[in-house]
Design goal:
It is a single chain. By secondary structure, the chain is of the alpha/beta class. The protein has three domains: 92 residues, Beta-grasp domain (Ubiquitin-like (UB roll), Roll); 101 residues, Elongation Factor Tu (Ef-tu), domain 3 (Beta Barrel); 130 residues, Rossmann fold (3-Layer(aba) Sandwich). Helices cover 26% and strands 27% of the residues. Helix 7 runs parallel beside helix 8. The longest helix is centred in the first third of the chain and has 29 residues. The termini are far apart.
């Protein structure tokens, strides 16, 4: 075969590929052109929108924000809503997050439902209070080698009411290979008494779209969108001893909760055991503040632990996985007859392990509270 023939054959194959790509694009535009559709929310608000997008994004474009700890990837199960229209059967990506009752009532994950025709949706009324705020980054502090404290100032006149323990969805703009703004959920480390600011503790996750942006590109003085407040993690109004467990950036909601309790004058009125796990001392932070609480309040007990202290590392605290330390304290150091509640923040794996330890020590699941970010 001559070089000339090979070149013409290559051009021919390339031309066919280009033609097929164009045809696929045209067909996709025709087949998936759903035109305008009406989204009815709670029978109170009707919105005419362009069809074809996921329900989660469609609602957000109209200023209605459903919880989404995973940013719409279908891995957290937070964006549940009741759909009173036929949008097809539940998808395999939805059913792991649904109870039999929810499936029967056609509760769906908004990030998995595509809006192809007129649709009726029922959502909790309190979700209408979630706002998208254009904030200004006021400070960025390095707490550890992979955790940054980010404080943002809300727009003037913002009246944002939230409960310590809730979270906000921090939005990174388009950058690099990120084709559209993307949000991820991070617990507030600020407390509700900080009326003008919100604060987050954001740990760098390898490959994480938003955490990479925060750690490598976000600058003080820059504008950033925050969707808030979201979530129902909060301290219950009881006298039960609080068994609090966190690791890494899971410190955030507890910083909010403890400072909120101090501001309200309730710190010290109930037993608090705060277990914080880290690998080495370089993963520990806010230690001076936490030890000061331990010293100031008789009922506040701070229990830090290292799971992998390096040889020669100066550490005289507990060692081992935080779940093992928690188990030891529940069995040997904390009164087993005292009513207890569990408050957890961390990875899904850590949460599951902590719940197993708490159940083993006679704590029931209805007394264990958390937001599972996945």
């Amino acid at each position: 075969m001559s070089i000339e023939t090979l070149i013409w054959q290559t051009i021919g194959v390339g031309g066919v590929s280009v033609l097929m790509a164009v045809m696929i694009s045209i067909i996709d535009g025709i087949v998936n052109n759903y035109g305008e559709v009406v989204v009815d929310v709670n029978g109170k608000k009707q919105m005419t929108v362009k069809g074809g997008s996921k329900l989660l994004g469609t609602l957000a474009d109209q200023g209605i924000f459903l919880p989404s700890a995973c940013g719409g990837r279908g891995s957290c199960g937070a964006c549940k809503c009741q759909v009173n229209s036929d949008v097809g059967p539940h998808l395999p990506t939805e059913t792991p997050y649904m109870t039999d009752k929810e499936i029967k009532e056609n509760v769906r994950l908004a990030c998995q439902v595509k809006v192809k025709a007129d649709i009726k949706v029922q959502i909790p009324e309190e979700l209408f209070n979630i706002k998208k705020l254009e904030c200004v980054v006021e400070s960025i502090k390095e707490l550890t080698y992979d955790i940054k404290e980010v404080r943002v100032r809300m727009p003037a006149g913002t009246d944002l009411s939230y409960v310590s323990g809730q979270y906000g969805q921090f939005e990174a703009p388009k950058y690099g290979d990120l084709k559209e703004p993307t949000a991820r959920a991070y617990s507030f480390s600020s407390n509700p008494q900080m009326k003008d600011h919100l604060e987050f503790l954001i740990r760098l996750v390898p490959g994480g779209a938003v955490t990479t942006y925060v750690h490598k590109f976000l600058k003080e003085g820059q504008k950033i969108n925050v969707i808030a407040p979201v979530g129902d993690f909060n301290v219950k109004d009881t006298d039960a001893a609080m068994m609090c467990v966190a690791g890494g950036s899971g410190m955030a909601p507890f910083k909010s909760i403890f400072n909120d309790m101090i501001a309200k004058g309730t710190m010290g009125k109930r037993q608090i055991w705060y277990f914080f796990g880290a690998r080495t001392t370089k993963d520990m932070y806010y230690l001076d503040w936490l030890w000061s609480l331990d010293k100031q309040y008789e009922n506040f007990h701070f229990v830090p632990a290292l799971s992998e202290p390096t040889p020669g590392e100066k550490w005289d605290g507990a060692t081992g996985l935080i779940t093992a330390v928690l188990d030891d304290y529940l069995q040997t150091k904390i009164d087993p007859t005292v009513p207890k509640e569990g408050y957890l923040c961390g990875s899904p794996g850590m949460l599951d392990a902590c719940m197993a330890v708490m159940r083993k020590n006679k704590m029931t699941e209805d007394k264990i509270f958390f937001d599972k970010f996945a």
